[in-house]
Design a protein that fits this description.
This protein is α+β, with helices and mostly antiparallel strands. Helix content is 63%, strand content 10%. It has a four-stranded antiparallel sheet with strand order 1-2-3-4, with no helix packed on it. β3 and β4 form a beta hairpin. The longest helix has 44 residues. The chain is flat and about 95 Å long.
Length: 283
């Protein structure tokens, strides 16, 4: 190997090594700068300097670390400015739940975990307070003789909370001019112990006796027990005890998959069973 070629190879090796060292040093500096900005972002969050925190986080060149820092800033900012409405708590809790998984084994995992727990507690408290306020608003309508609006309010909520079904019947009862003969009373449980139970009972007892109330309610319960239509999932015995009673004809089909039956009640009323359970009704 001649000297020129030898020196050329040595030169190439030196340049390559120098390039690698330069890149390595730049990476060290970049990582050091990223970590510094990440820690500085955390300090600004603690001081609630949101603009400084966001600006510093955006200086981080590592995309994953930048995203983590910006998310931490955003979550804390939302957390600090929570108001008393449960919707804000729900939104923040949803965001926390979506992001907390990404923080496993990361510096702020414990911080976000504590935040998540506190928001859950505040959400439950806010929802309870909101519900109590709704019940109070309902009673204000009743006391102001605004039974129609009270009934509408209860009707809208009764599918989500069974207590509102009782309040809906109560508002209807209050609308009845002849309260002593109110049919609505038959649907109101005299043993109800939910929200506003004391207020409801005080008002009803001023119009009817507890004995009359219990009698009407029990009468309706007995009537409903034996006066129902066939429904999906019922047994044969349950269907026979319904208002449809015993069928005029029964058609039975046996296959490798089981036994099916068609109970005929009239030319256009049928009940279909699969292995002894109602699967379809035609009327």
């Amino acid at each position: 190997m001649n000297k020129k070629l030898k020196y050329f190879i040595i030169l190439v090796v030196l340049v390559t090594v120098f390039s690698f060292i330069t890149i390595w040093v730049k990476d060290i500096k970049k990582n050091s700068s990223n970590n510094k900005n990440y820690n500085l972002t955390t300090e600004f969050v603690i001081q609630e300097k949101w603009e400084d925190a966001t600006d510093t986080a955006n200086k981080i060149t590592n995309n994953e670390l930048k995203k983590e820092a910006l998310t931490f800033v955003s979550l804390n900012q939302r957390y600090k400015y929570l108001n008393s409405q449960d919707k804000s708590y729900k939104d923040l809790l949803r965001i926390l739940n979506d992001n907390i998984i990404d923080y496993q084994n990361k510096p702020h995992k414990a911080d976000l975990g504590d935040m998540q727990k506190e928001v859950e507690e505040k959400l439950l408290k806010a929802m309870a307070e909101f519900k109590l306020k709704e019940f109070d608003d309902f009673m204000v309508l009743i006391n102001n003789y605004n039974y129609k609006d009270a009934g509408a309010m209860a009707f809208e909520r009764r599918s989500k909370d069974k207590n509102w079904e009782m309040l809906w019947y109560f508002a209807s009862f209050m609308e009845d001019e002849d309260k002593q003969n109110s049919f609505t009373l038959s649907f109101m449980n005299p043993y109800y112990s939910g929200p506003l139970s004391d207020e409801i009972k005080d008002i009803i007892y001023n119009n009817v006796s507890i004995k009359q109330w219990e009698s009407q309610y029990k009468g309706m319960q007995g009537f409903q027990k034996h006066n129902y239509k066939p429904a999906i999932g019922m047994t044969k015995e349950k269907v026979e005890n319904s208002i449809w009673g015993t069928p005029i004809d029964i058609n039975i089909t046996t296959t490798a998959y089981g036994v099916s039956e068609q109970w005929v009640y009239s030319i256009d009323r049928y009940v279909y069973f699969e292995d002894g359970e109602v699967t379809a009704i035609q009327e």
